[in-house]
Specification:
With about 270 residues, the protein is α/β, with parallel strands linked by helices. The protein has helices spanning about 15, 20-25, 25-35, 50-60, 80-90, 100-105, 125-135, 170-175, 190-195, 210-215, 220, 235-250, 260-265; strands at about 40-45, 70-75, 115-120, 140-145, 150-160, 165-170, 185-190, 200, 205, 230, 255, 270.
Length: about 270
């Protein structure tokens, strides 16, 4: 991510989701939360000139989502705030989709996936972004100005409670490996040198250390509606990665393999590069 002098910082998804930050670089999460001190405001909904949008504005004050919201956003520099208004009107009028506009205009890497950030909880984003996201009705949009720029936020869904990662044993994993492998996602988050030393057939390598690079395409690379099993050496890194996958929207159930590769000695084990 480039932060040139005098330009607006362009956050990546790890800055917008604390879960990704903690998995990759906790210092980025701290910087993201501290940036909430900067004065900014939550603006009115895009396209407020229409009767429908005015109605949304009048009811939005009563909205206060508990739990989590699933959001997408389009980020532009402050000088392009007027353009964002125009783009919002195009989306509201059906002339363009949110995903297409995000892909073309958003300065956030999430634009590659239609602007989708996934599920967020309170405290995971800067205050202005959080205020807009948690007080906007599902299916509606809102604007927020932060130190990163101007955001058009789309609230895709809401849920009262966040799902949790489920711990499974090596024995549970072996039963999965003996079943229909096409019905599950199997992700190994160790490093390539660990993978070369020993691995389980059918797992896909996605190192935790490079999560920033592979999470933008994870929703396309894996079927998020399937159960997802995550493994590492001992079960620590895999838990962190599993939590991120939940926030991204892996809603088929995410499972952390306790004990990891240290505990596995089954017939699916492959050793050597």
């Amino acid at each position: 991510t480039t932060r040139g002098s005098g330009s607006v910082r362009r956050p990546d998804s790890k800055m917008l989701l604390r879960a990704v930050s903690s998995a990759i670089a906790s210092s980025s999460s701290v910087a993201w939360r501290r940036s909430a001190r900067t004065s900014s405001r939550v603006a009115s909904f895009i396209g407020a000139s229409s009767r429908r949008d005015r109605a949304s504005m009048m009811t939005s004050a009563a909205v206060n989502h508990p739990g989590q919201v699933k959001v997408a956003h389009i980020l532009v520099e402050p000088k392009d705030a007027g353009l964002l208004d125009e783009l919002g009107e195009q989306i509201a009028g059906g002339a363009a989709t949110f995903a297409d506009v995000a892909s073309e205009h958003s300065k956030c890497p999430s634009g590659k996936q239609g602007g989708v950030l996934g599920w967020i909880s309170r405290g995971q984003t800067v205050g202005e972004f959080e205020q807009a996201a948690f007080t906007t009705e599902v299916g509606a949009t809102a604007k927020a100005t932060t130190t990163f720029g101007v955001h058009l936020i789309s609230v895709l869904d809401a849920r009262a409670e966040a799902p949790t990662v489920v711990d499974v044993t090596i024995q549970d994993l072996q039963e999965v490996l003996e079943g229909d492998l096409d019905s599950v996602n199997l992700i190994d988050v160790r490093e390539p040198n660990e993978w070369d030393g020993a691995r389980i057939e059918a797992f896909t390598l996605r190192p935790l250390s490079t999560m920033q690079q592979w999470t933008p395409t994870a929703m396309d690379d894996f079927d998020v509606s399937k159960p997802t099993y995550v493994i590492c050496a001992a079960g620590v890194r895999s838990m962190r990665a599993a939590s991120v996958l939940l926030d991204l929207g892996f809603d088929g159930g995410v499972y952390n393999v306790q004990g990891g590769m240290y505990a596995y000695s089954g017939p699916n084990l492959v050793t050597g590069a």
